[in-house]
Every structure is written in C-alpha cells, then in structure tokens.
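Worked example

This section walks through a single chain of length 172. The input is the sequence exactly as stored; nothing has been trimmed or padded.
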Amino acid sequence: MPEEWFSTPEWTAAAQTDFEQRLKRARPWNRPQYLRAKAIALRERGGAEQRRGARALNERIIRDYPGSFFDVVVAHEELASLAEQEAQFEQAIGHYREALHLSQEGAPTGDAQLRLPELLLAHHVTDERLREEPTNEPRHSVIIAHEASGVIPEHSRNQQCWSTGRLLDDEC
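Given that input, the structure is written out below as tokens.
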C-alpha cells in the first residue's frame, strides 16, 4: 500500500513544495493533523534534515493552530522527543511541561506524563527543585518515578500525603 503524501519521510526541496501544495488544498480544520502526521513521519524515519523539518512543522502547529489543542500537545511532545535526541534536556523538559499544562485544559497527553519524570530522574533533579515545579503539573508521576528509583523510600511517607498528591510538601 503506497504511503500517503503526509506520511512519507521525504523532505527534499521538491517534497516540501509538494507537501505545501497539498496542504493548501486540504480543508483548513484538517491542516494541523497533516502537519502533525508529517512531522511524526519525519522524526521517526528520517535523518538530521528530516528532524529539522519535523521541528519546523511542530513549531508551525504551535504558532499557527493554537486552538487545535490535541495537535499542539502532540507538537510539544514531539519537540521534546527531538530535543532529547539532541541531548537538549532542559528544552525537552520545558516542552513536556507545556504538554502537561495544555493537557490539563482538555487535550489528551501521551508521552509527557511518562517521559517527564523519567527525564527529571535521569538528570538528578532533586526534591528541592520539584517543589519549584508549577503546581498544575501532575506530581504523582514524578513521585512514582522517584519511588521507583529509590530517591524516596517506598513506604517512608504518610499514606494521606500520598493519596492527596502532597508527598513533597513540607508538612508531609
């Protein structure tokens, strides 16, 4: 089965022109999903040039289609993944946080809820820094990841603090 125009990993000048022409003919409300699909295809199956294209398409989704919440959340997750591939971990953390923030506003999230705590742990973010995290970020995932890593002993905290998500608060 041949690939669709929006799911090929090709990103030559001719492929970009063809993509843009087809995108212009697409219904306006479908354009963010075509940008998203192409960006994912480029990131998953391409080299450095394709990753640059994927980054540009994801940034375009965020800039040009801010009301398309699902596509914007996925674009942030994709940008975070690209940043991780390039060892730009602070940038990746920022994009995962933005994806989680937006997902709280009604758009579903995928990788951010799992990858953010893993990334924080991999780079030895301390409990003190977690207290500085935005309060709208789901801290349960971070707490679970910290327990799994041994940073917080599994049974050392009060069950009430755990169940209310206040495990890192001073009073717990």
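What to look for: Residues 4 and 132 are 45 Å apart (CA to CA).
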